[in-house]
Amino acid sequence: MEQVALIECPSYDVDLVEQKLREGFELLGGESFLRRLIPAGSSVLLKPNLLSVEAPGSLVVTHHAVFEAVVRIVRDYSEKLSFGDSPGFGDPRRAVEKAGLTEVAGRYGVKFQDFRESLHVKCEDALLCKSWEIARAPYEADVLITLPRLKTHGLAFMTGAIKNQFGCVPGLQKAAWHTRMTDPRNFSRMLLDLNTALGTHFAILDGITAMEGNGPRNGSPFQLNALIMGQSLSAVDSVAARLIGYSDPLDVPALKEAHESKWGAVLPQEIAVLGESIERLKTTHFKLARSASDSSNRIFGLMAPLLRGAMVPEPALRQEKCIGCRRCFDVCPLKPKVISMIEKSGKSMPRWNMDNCIRCFCCQELCPEGAIELRYRGIGKLLHRHSNS
Is the Cα torsion angle 306, 184, 233, 287 positive or negative in sign? Predict the structure, then answer.
């Protein structure tokens, strides 16, 4: 049975976050656990969530206080401590600097690793994807600790411990994976294989202030007051999914694939939750990006595959928010692109060819103004309302 520490933490005061994380490590086994996790002489790389270039404290990125608290703990066990990420859009160095991580790293002597240098890796135990180009730094680190932010996500439903390692795919290579993995099931298998190739060792999921609604970049803050820690990425994400409103963790595509392939612990009976109880911290008011009906066959049984096109949302523009920056066009991974820019109301606005759109939601994910949302039509709208009622 996998162990996950669930800790209540009501603020980003760095001393409090450190205290709470130390409590979590004590629940998992204390000093002996940490020395097994980080053997003497090991190099440790911290992988924050840096989707794009964002200001300190932004909901979009791992909070700098969580990063600092982890650094304070881990530096007691390793003198070779580094960090890095490859944002979906923007320069990595600017992203870490803007988020406040460079200043923290400088005070503690933590080295920044540029994820643009990659190497070819074979994953023989893959579910789907055996061949990889992965950033060299996280692959070669002795211990990889992931520091995701709990957010909603258009394609993956939620982003947490499993999804965060997509940032270990350098730069624009992420777009190529989106064009190859066009449905949530295969995208989830790809993420599991990526973590197998990397051998991610531990996850600390920042759910103090989570992001609900139009995530992972333009959603709203939700005060969840939770830190979730564990060696099993699927177990950590399963706890997170239940906290935000997925009564069945198998409604989240990556967790469904992890369970069916026996990749990791997902079901409640497979996970020992230490510290706070899920019942005490869970909410019924969190606005999910995708509902259970999007991934479930339970409502229509064998008819569900035929209805998939109607059940999956599509990107939709809120014209009043659009500034005509063209980022949606730039990040569309398809060739030819399914987005064209048209002149309207004195500015360029996107128009989608929905017949060719693969619903990767890169445009929605990386829109700097929150002008693109997910919208259900027809029966999909009814099913989404039913699942969230």
Answer: negative
Kindly state the DSSP code that residue 5 receives in the 8-state scheme. Answer: E
Q: Which long-range contacts (CB under 8 A, 24 or more apart) does 294-302 make?
A: 294/157, 294/184, 294/383, 294/384, 294/387, 295/157, 295/184, 295/251, 295/252, 295/253, 295/256, 296/251, 299/383
For tokens 């993956």, name the residue: 156
Q: Which CATH number is 296-388 given? A: 3.30.70.20
Residue partners of 213: CB distance under 8 A and separation at least 6 = 152, 219, 220, 287, 289
Entry pTM: 0.89
pLDDT at 35: 98
Collapse the DSSP code of 357 into the 3-class scheme (helix H, G, I; strand E, B; otherwise coil) and give the result: coil
User: Helix (H, G, I), strand (E, B), or coil: what is residue 217?
Assistant: coil
Residue 312 has pLDDT above 90, yes or no: no
Domain ranges of the chain: 2-281, 296-388
Tell me: cis bond preceding 336? Omega within 30 of 0 counts: yes
Q: Is 160 exposed, middle or buried (0-12, 13-18, 19+ CB in 10 A)?
A: buried
Q: Strand, coil or helix: what is 8?
A: strand
**Is the C-alpha dihedral spanning 292, 297, 301, 306 positive or negative?**
positive
Per DSSP, the three-state class of 373 is strand
- Measured at the CA of 272, the angle between CA 279 and CA 16, to 5 degrees, comes to 70
Handedness of CA 242, 246, 250, 253 (dihedral sign): negative
Give the range among 82-91, 215-224, 244-253 with minimum mean pLDDT. Answer: 82-91
Rg (the chain; Cα; Å): 20
CATH superfamily, domain 2-281, is LarA, N-terminal domain (3.40.50.11440)
Peptide bond into 216 cis (omega under 30): yes
